[in-house]
Amino acid sequence: MNEYNPNEGSTEPLWSVSSLTAAATALIALVVSFGLPITADQQTAILGVVAVVAPIVVALAGRRRVYAPATVARLLRR
Question: Rounded to whole angstroms, how far apart are CA atoms 32 and 59?
Fold first, then answer.
């Protein structure tokens, strides 16, 4: 039997997809400002990959930290 122990100290378990995309955009701007030669097409491609990968990362990270209402109800009945 699995023992579920939610992290009671966690106030916000998920980063939003927009936060990850904004962080990637800021990182690209930073490295370009320091002289890394990235074309506009390369920037667009990187942000396209981030737009696809970010929801997957958020889902995987969040899945370990949130509980479905049915799971909580089942745990409370024990």
Answer: 30
List, for residues 15-42, the tens digit of each pLDDT value. 676 787 788 888 888 888 888 898 989 9
Entry pTM: 0.57
**Three-class SS of residue 4?**
coil
Q: Rounded distance, CA 51 to CA 64, Å? A: 21
Query: Which two tokens mark 66?
Result: 């949130």
- Check residue 67 and give its pLDDT: 75
CA-CA distance, 32 to 20, in Å (whole number)?
18
CB 2 within 8 A of CB 75: no
Average pLDDT, the chain: 78
